[in-house]
Design goal:
This protein is mainly alpha-helical and about 250 residues long. The chain is built from 11 helices and no strands.
Length: about 250
């Protein structure tokens, strides 16, 4: 009889846990994340994925790892989210944006180390920021990050060329880097043209909203010009972005 009572009590305790869905664990993970309990959020997202691997689960798990300074593990989960995919272009954009942030941070770390391959890291950052803008061309933050990544890429390429490199392999790599940069510049010009065409259409439909967008673009352009003219200012902005990027990750759905 005692064994029967114990079995009943055990089932009563386990039934609520068994009834929890993947979505329930996502909600609990989001609550823990908002409360800055990132290890608990990680656990909840892992439980959600164990029940149902989804884009949202892997993306949120990646964010939890970023907040715990586990960027490499975060990037692996962002890749898993991308492999599952989503029909929401804004979610795709955020996922690519965060991947770009990780590679940008690695590029900055490599540029401070002797023999670090900062060029390769910044190239990856540029690629991910561009992928993000293809999904959401109106994201000023991603557009700014792309400009900064391109700035750091060119800076490190120039330093690499000044150091000589010495060897056919390095010369070939420099040539490939230059071709990649030209391709990136052309893509940027194409994107800017698309943005201008879109703004012209919006101006005809809603003039007040157009003025607001113009001010946003102008502010972003002024900020970039200021950063490029003052190298120390660029460095301070980069360091600030590295610290604040963990705050700015969007995780709620």
């Amino acid at each position: 009889m005692k064994r029967l009572v114990f079995s009943i009590l055990l089932m009563m305790f386990m039934l609520p846990m068994m009834a929890q869905s993947a979505r329930d664990f996502i909600r609990m993970g989001n609550k823990a994340y908002r409360e800055k309990q990132y290890d608990k959020a990680e656990t909840m997202y892992l439980k959600s994925i164990a029940k149902d691997p989804t884009f949202e689960g892997y993306y949120n798990l990646g964010n939890a790892y970023v907040m715990q300074m586990k960027d490499s593990t975060a990037f692996e989960n962002y890749k898993k989210a991308d492999s599952i995919g989503t029909n929401d272009p804004l979610r795709k954009a955020r996922n690519y944006h965060n991947c770009g942030n990780i590679w940008y941070a690695q590029g900055m770390a490599a540029s401070r180390q002797q023999g670090g391959n900062a060029v390769a890291a910044f190239q990856r950052a540029v690629e991910f920021y561009k992928s993000s803008l293809r999904c959401n061309p109106n994201d000023d933050e991603t557009r700014y990050n792309l400009a900064m990544a391109q700035h750091q890429l060119k800076k490190n390429q120039d330093q690499q060329n000044q150091n000589g490199g010495g060897g056919d392999d390095d010369k070939n790599k420099d040539k490939q880097d230059q071709q990649q940069q030209q391709k990136q510049d052309q893509q940027k010009q194409d994107q800017q043209k698309k943005d201008e065409d879109k703004k012209q259409q919006q101006q005809q439909q809603a003039q007040p909203q157009q003025k607001k967008d113009d001010m946003s673009d102008q502010a972003a352009e002024q900020l970039l010009n200021s950063a490029q003219q003052d190298e120390k200012g660029v460095q301070r902005k980069v360091n600030k972005n590295q610290n604040n990027r963990r705050r700015s990750l969007e995780k709620d759905w």
